[in-house]
Inverse folding.
């Protein structure tokens, strides 16, 4: 399972999952490197114990704060290597893009629930228990205090739905890859 999660994260960055791509992104991409250690620290068994110290070091080095207890789907993409903060009670779906200076938090109770194929732009704040629907786009600098429906583009302080055109347009290399021969 953990290998499949890391493979899906790698695919989001490059559209490939071979060893050469893994090595290149591990050493050259801070967001992917952090995600690898996050996935390993969240894995059951011996991986957790072995990976946790490196996860803590990567967290401090990158400024990306995501707990291994945070439920995260396949294909996490952290653009430009952070920094960002995600509350451990948040839930992230598949193929989520997180941009720098994003904060998903809550003072009391659960934090945001993020659907599949969601793009969250730079410097966004998702406050308290909001829900972001599938294929939604949150524009840069937005403060989200209310639910955003599926397929919506929202922006502003406080975020308002602007339109329902081009849902999920910023989500590239979606996992799982669609086999071109299955028609």
């Amino acid at each position: 399972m953990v290998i499949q999660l890391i493979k899906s994260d790698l695919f989001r960055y490059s559209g490939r999952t071979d060893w050469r791509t893994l090595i290149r992104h591990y050493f050259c991409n801070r967001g992917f490197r952090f995600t690898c250690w996050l996935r390993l620290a969240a894995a059951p068994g011996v991986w957790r114990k072995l990976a946790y110290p490196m996860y803590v070091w990567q967290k401090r080095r990158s400024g990306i704060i995501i707990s291994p207890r945070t439920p995260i789907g396949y294909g996490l993409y952290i653009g430009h290597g952070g920094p960002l903060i995600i509350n451990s009670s948040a839930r992230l779906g598949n193929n989520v893009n997180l941009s720098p200076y994003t904060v998903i938090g809550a003072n009391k109770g659960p934090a945001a629930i993020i659907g599949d194929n969601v793009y969250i732009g730079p410097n966004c704040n998702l406050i308290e228990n909001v829900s972001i629907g599938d294929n939604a786009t949150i524009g840069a600098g937005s403060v989200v205090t209310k639910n955003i429906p599926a397929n919506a583009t929202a922006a502003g302080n406080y975020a308002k739905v602007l339109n329902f055109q081009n849902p999920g347009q910023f989500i590239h290399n979606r996992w799982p890859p669609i086999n071109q021969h299955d028609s």
Observations:
- The chain has a mean pLDDT of 94.
- The CA atoms of residues 8 and 75 lie 5 Å apart.
